[in-house]
Amino acid sequence: MAVFTTAGSLRDDVYRPILRPRRGELAALSHLAPGDESRVMPILEVESGPGLLALIRQLPPRAGAVAIDFSAVPEPRGLLWRPALDLAESLADLGVTMVPVLRAYDGNRRLTAHGLAARMHLRRAVLRLQPHVDAGNPAEADAVAERLLQGAGLEAEEVDLLIDLAETACVAHADVVEEQCRRVLRWARGMPWRSVSVASGAMPANLDDLPTDRPVSVGRLDARVWSRLGEPGVGYSDYGVTSPVRRLGVQRHRQLPTLRYTSENDWWIYRWARRGARSDDRCHDLCRTLVRSPQWPATGARFSWGDAEIARRARTAHGGGSSASWISWSTSHHIAHVLESLTAH
Fold first, then answer.
1. Is residue 155 assigned to a domain?
2. What is the pLDDT of residues 288-306, one digit of tens each?
3. What does the pLDDT read at residue 232?
4. CA 159 to CA 139: how far, in whole Å?
5. Is residue 5, in this structure, part of any structural domain at all?
6. Residues ≥6 apart with Cβ < 8 Å to 282
7. Which of 111, 242, 226 is nearest to 178 (CA)?
8. Residue 258 three-state SS
9. DSSP one-letter code for 195
10. In 215-322, where does DSSP find H-type helix?
11. For residue 275, what is the DSSP state?
12. How far is CA 187 from CA 7, 59, 180, 271, in A?
């Protein structure tokens, strides 16, 4: 492993995708290749407690862990904030280890609960720092880190620092984000974090305006930022195949069959409208086009579970799937691609 700071932080070569705990993303996680469970620690952004356990039951017992970000869950009045502890206990019963995520705006009760949840199993937590929001300079970052560590009763050596740069919207913005990240990394070297990773996201929030019936490339500017940093010991994180920007409102129209297919420098967006009104026919035509494309991996259907599902739909028009299916196949391929890239890096 590469040493990141003289204080002792190590890159642990774990990929930390920031995902929403939806059926599609969790289906992809449940089909990781043997041995990859320990190389992937998803950070799930929980919006509400009910229903999460039913979804997360799809996950097999993991050699690694699942980080849970409760920042969108309201903090009701009471002596102890229970969601983190209750979920940690419930997940343990399912054989899943929970790692709490600390945020700059967490209150004292929430931090206390996160600390208790962290000590329940691995004695580990993730500190997710968004420098553009949480700290404008090193002194502010010091104060944020000190308050969170003290509130949770943890040492920096027990915490994975995630520098979340959020949206990387365009090439010019990517250059700004890269320079900002270098400044934050210089600050991070002053503490002995368990590991340090950088996250950002470049997938557009809305794909509806993209052309249909032909693949369209969208630059993976988030991967470009991490690669250009060239910092030894810095781990990789992203938002999977989704955008860090949440779409407002409810989508009223029926979604076209859509795949977000990851390559080294781009995502290839396949949105299919032709072949009449049947979704199965459109998905079949989409998948046939993809498996004949230059983006299709040399190992074909063996590359990931998602690729095997795409190859199956290329052979038959039956069972074209749903929006959750398309996200799950895309996410599965993306995770396999990232892990392969990190191994070669």
1. yes
2. 999 999 999 999 999 999 9
3. 81
4. 19
5. no
6. 256, 257, 272, 273, 274, 275, 276, 320
7. 226
8. strand
9. E
10. 221-229, 279-291, 305-315
11. S
12. 12, 36, 11, 42
Domain residues for 272?
Answer: 16-344
Q: Is residue 18 over pLDDT 90?
A: yes
- CA gap 203, 147 in Å, rounded: 33
Q: How many domains does the chain have?
A: 1
In a domain, 75, yes or no: yes
Looking up tokens 């195949």 gives 241
83 — pLDDT class (breaks 50, 70, 90) = confident
Kindly state whether residue 227 falls inside one of the protein's structural domains: yes
For the domain that residue 138 is a member of, what is the CATH number? 3.20.20
Residues 193/6, Cβ–Cβ less than 8 Å: no
Q: Residue 218 pairs with which residues in a beta bridge? A: 267
pLDDT at 6: 38
The closest of 336, 9, 32, 30 to 163, measured between CA atoms, is 9
More confident residue, 93 or 131: 131
